[in-house]
UniProtKB/TrEMBL annotation:
This is FAD/NAD(P)-binding protein. It comes from Polycladomyces zharkentensis. It holds the Pfam family NAD_binding_9. Signal peptide: none annotated. SUPFAM superfamilies: FAD/NAD(P)-binding domain, NAD(P)-binding Rossmann-fold domains. InterPro entries: FAD/NAD-bd_sf, HpyO/CreE_NAD-binding, L-asp_N-monooxygenase_NS-form, NAD(P)-bd_dom_sf. Residues 12-163 form the FAD-dependent urate hydroxylase HpyO/Asp monooxygenase CreE-like FAD/NAD(P)-binding domain.
Length: 503
């Protein structure tokens, strides 16, 4: 353990990708011997988190390897790691494909361990406590309590707790044939009989994963992806780098100078201008396709279109640079309208599935093994252990199993909150954000309490901040936020006087 000459301690709760990026930058920017870091992660090694844990290789990343990294300044860091790795490099030589998610998890573990080694050289200890944090109490310092009643005190606490649990929309938990957490998929679906009829709640990327994993396991029964909209994710086309010309920070500033707020129609107008030179229609992005054609017809059209570069996908990817700021200044009524009418569609377009997955899904639909069905209204368990689902118009379907693939909730329902989140909310140290997660200060990520005060020594990064930043599913944006936060924390410690003489 390194020598911490000033007794400054930083606690990081959660050990996924956001944690790996943040701890890297804390160690990288920290003054030698100025603080120690303790990471709390109960469920798995630090790095993979829920998204990239060990699981079936059927689960693939939704972005190409060259665009994945936890280092904001090096977008190809994962690809470089893979290309030089003595074990993995020969296995994946010459490919730039959508690689297994567990491979990215191995990369995250490796980056974290490398950070620990660098920390030792700088007398910055990075320790791991494999326990769940369930409570935070604030006096002069922060006291974290783990599930076994043990307490740890810190000067600064950073929440990297990732995704809250999915919501049990139909109160099905407790039924033997209901799977509330689909990941890891291999054990979750291994108990399903080959000919059982399976209902998968949701039709997003998680639902696609479940369907493909079932087929790979040899499942022969019907699989239904059930949701309100029946909208599948788009299919990822060949990526073409894009420089935004109209949907820019300069355009945003100009609008704010005129009337002090951004309207949804302003963003749509700028988006339309970006697409106009390519002859693409903005309505193909923000209007539901299920109203025009069947899911199998729509997916065939998507596969055909994916053979070409589609600029709207490039524009949406390039918008990562400014999406947080546009969201910050968007009129509150328009935020509510967007979340109500467009959010699900936007996420289905912004997070497209790889072609290989789309081909498998289309084949399963053509073979009538897979059905994508919208209009879900209600579901409940029957006394024989099976389930029924009711759809628009009163139609009833029966299922042997139900798998919840709706994904993490943005809104902090009590049933989906961890013990720590409930502790923060009940003690008034945090408050819910109207559009998801907990409220944080936009510039610093400092958690905002019930009185509206931002606490610079209690911060959050990742999905739990989705109400403030909107699009927190991008590792690129998380890494940038983590780098900025680490720099601010190091500066805060310097200004506090504890390490000022070293700076």
């Amino acid at each position: 353990m390194g020598e911490n000459r000033f007794g400054v301690s930083i606690g990081v709760v959660g050990g996924g990708a956001a944690c790996v990026s943040l701890v890297h930058y804390l160690v990288d920017k920290g003054v030698p011997g100025s603080f120690d870091v303790t990471v709390f992660e109960a469920n798995r090694p630090v790095g993979p988190g829920l998204a990239y844990q060990q699981d079936t290789d059927i689960l693939r990343m939704n972005r190409m390897a060259r665009t994945m990294s936890v280092l904001a300044e090096d977008p190809e860091h994962f690809w470089k790691w893979l290309s030089s790795h003595p074990y993995y490099a020969p296995l994946y030589e010459g490919t730039d494909d959508y690689l297994p998610r567990s491979l990215f998890g191995a990369y995250l573990q490796d980056v974290f361990e490398q950070t620990r080694r660098v920390g030792l050289k700088k007398s910055i200890s990075v320790e791991v406590v494999k326990k769940e944090v369930i409570h935070l109490y604030k006096r002069d310092r922060y006291r974290l309590m783990t599930r076994d009643g043990e307490t740890h005190e810190f000067d600064i606490v950073i929440l990297c707790i990732g995704h809250p649990s999915s919501i049990d929309h139909f109160n099905l938990r407790g039924n033997d044939r209901y799977v509330h957490h689909p990941y890891p998929l291999s054990p979750a679906i291994s108990v399903i009989f080959r000919n059982d009829r399976v209902a998968v709640l949701g039709s997003s990327l998680t639902a696609v994963d479940v369907a493909i994993a079932l087929q790979k396991q040899g499942h022969a029964g019907e699989i239904h992806l059930l949701s309100r909209t029946g909208e599948l994710p788009s299919v990822r086309s060949e990526f073409a780098p894009c420089q935004l010309r109209y949907l820019t920070r300069e355009a945003m500033v100009g609008i704010l100078q005129k009337r002090g707020v951004i309207r949804l129609r302003d963003i749509i107008r700028l988006f339309r201008r970006e697409l106009r030179p390519y002859g693409e229609d903005w309505r193909d992005v923000l209007f539901p396709h299920s109203r025009k054609r069947s899911p199998v017809e729509w997916l065939k059209r998507e596969l055909d279109a994916a053979r070409n570069k589609r600029r709207w996908q490039s524009v949406l990817a390039a918008a990562n640079e400014i999406i947080e700021e546009f969201w910050l200044y968007l009129d509150e009524a328009d935020k509510n309208r967007f979340m109500r009418d467009y959010h699900r569609l936007f996420m289905a377009r912004r997070n497209p599935m790889p072609v290989r997955n789309a081909v498998k899904i289309h084949q399963m639909m053509q073979q009538r093994q897979l059905t994508v069905k919208g209009g879900l209204k209600h579901m409940d368990a029957l006394s024989d252990g099976t389930f029924f689902a009711q759809f628009d118009g009163g139609e009833i379907k029966r299922y042997d199993w139900v798998i919840n693939a709706t994904g993490s909730s943005r809104n902090l329902e009590l049933a989906s909150c961890s013990g720590l989140l409930l502790s923060l909310l009940h003690n008034g140290y945090a408050r819910r954000h109207a559009h998801g997660g907990i409220d944080v200060d936009f510039q610093t990520g400092a958690v905002v309490d019930q009185q509206g005060r931002a606490d610079l020594r209690l911060r959050a990064v990742g999905h739990i901040t989705c109400g403030t930043y909107y699009y927190t599913g991008s590792l690129e944006l998380i890494a940038k936020r983590a780098e900025q936060m680490a720099a601010e924390i190091v500066d805060l410690l310097a200004r506090s006087g504890k390490i000022a003489e070293l700076v």
